[in-house]
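Re: beginner question about structure tokens

> Can someone show what the tokenized structure looks like for a real chain? I only ever see the sequence side.

Sure, here's an example I had lying around. Input first:
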Amino acid sequence: MARTAVASSGFTLRVMARNPSIREALSDLRGRLERHDLTLEELNTVEVVLAEVMNNVAEHAYAWRQDGEMLVHLRVATDGLHCSVTDEGRAMPDDALPFGGDLDPGMPIDDLPEGGFGWLIIRRLAHDVRYLRQSGVNELSFRLAVGTPVGAAAF
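And the corresponding structure tokens:
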């Protein structure tokens, strides 16, 4: 279940790294963001990127645990939506972000590599993507260039 902590600079959700909790958190986040002047396309972009990030945490960082949780912090600013997701799961391979490179559009479907599409989506839709592993904690931060919030309205 997602629990919310409100901060003056945004809000933070504590989310269990399991599919039902992730779906609930995404619904909560979308409801909060619908109060802002975002287009349907922008709302969908936020939801897709956060779903990819949170599902990656559940599937890879906490693949070995059922009790893992993550903190999802969002802050509206004049340059978009600033997001960070932290967890205490496994580190990214080589302590670095996956490449998520482009695919050859002419490649036959049967020859496409397994996995990695989530990072392609994240890298295409998010800006200023950064990963840091410190003291056993992963932090992924990024900015989504959505909306034109006036005065960084509160959630």
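Each token stands for a local structural state, so reading them left to right follows the chain. The chain has one domain: 3-144.
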